[in-house]
Amino acid sequence: DRQRRRGGRPGRAGGRRPALGRARRRRGQRDVRRAPRRGRPLIFIGKAGATIQMLQDTSGAKFNLNRQTGVLTISGPEACVQIGLAEARAILAAEAERKANEIEESVTWGSDAIKAVIGRGGSNIRATQEATGVKIDADVEAGTLVISGPSEMVSTALTMCHNAAFGEVQDQVELGSRNAVNVIYGPGFQTIRQLQESTGCKLDIARGTTTLKLAGSTEAVAEATERIRALLEANRGFEMTIENSKVGAVYGKGGETLRSIQDRTGTQIDVSRGPTHATVSVMGTADASQRARNMLQRAIDGEVELKPGEVAEELELGSATAAIIGRGGSNVADLEKRHGVKVNVRSELQKARVVGKPDRVAKAVEEIAKVVKPILEAEQAQREANLVMESGESAWQVSPEDDDADGW
């Protein structure tokens, strides 16, 4: 009414538009429409509409936000509208101040780290955003993280994300050998999983390395480190040196012997060849290591453990050893395949040990004997002939007694 008396158009005072937009009075009510800057309308709504509900409860005015146009309309009695208008201005001012202090931080940590930042079902990233009020954009594929918000809150959120990805503390332990790595892993990776679950420390061994990386809280890393060192100490084991020629006996056919010893004793065994000798490293508990030592020594000595229903028979090969072995062990392999037995030839002792079912062992021994017997008999005949030659006797030599015999 006052504006009309001054000759202005409705909504104008002195021919100028009020800073807060157009207002009009109708039957004791007043509507004020405010168009927030682009991107800001949702600040008046709040989570689950909490902000707009608070504005209405506080002012007694009605607030209506058109999300498409971004126009906020406040209607109600004059006094209520003024209160609501003041509240809206305060929100806009606070938002402007927040924007002025807002920064953006971007980091590239890799896909695995970003997955850890997000957490199962997004639990970690939600907790960080709720605690700091920042906005976090995580790109797993690119391995990047973008955090935006007030500078102090961005710094806090970045620390929280870093701890979720890498732990509060990072440390590493050099295990020194593949055996030690396998001890930490345990059967089916059970040991390393149990260590992580019981300590809350993240453990990782990069493929092809012997370095164990630890990440977590100070307490978790300290506990995990102590338990890992205790585990390695309890599985110290031993080392033994053998000739390179004995490595095959340790491995067995297709690695069967080595796997059997590891499975039956629960130890970890590694063989490292040198120029002339090999080092056999064994890790396991004291009892397990001793059992592994005994089994390794039997394998090196050519002994084969008998299974139920099996027998073993040993033969002297003598100079027939090479004939039984064959080129590259071909004859031994053929015997084992045809008779279903295990044949172990110890060249240095010129002996063979045949293991298997009684009937199969008997047939294999019989075949070996057919090869060995004529060679040994020829060798024996040669030795006897050599003795005769050395004694000076000969089948053509005439004795003194025969010298008086009648002749032709």
TrEMBL record:
Signal peptide: none
Region (Disordered): 1-38, 388-408
GO molecular function: RNA binding
Annotated K Homology domain residues: 27-93, 101-166, 167-233, 234-301, 311-373
Sorted UniProt keywords: Repeat, RNA-binding
Gene3D superfamilies hit by this protein: K Homology domain, type 1
Record-given protein name: K Homology domain-containing protein
Naturally occurring in which organism (per UniProt): Thalassiosira oceanica
Lineage: Eukaryota, Sar, Stramenopiles, Ochrophyta, Bacillariophyta
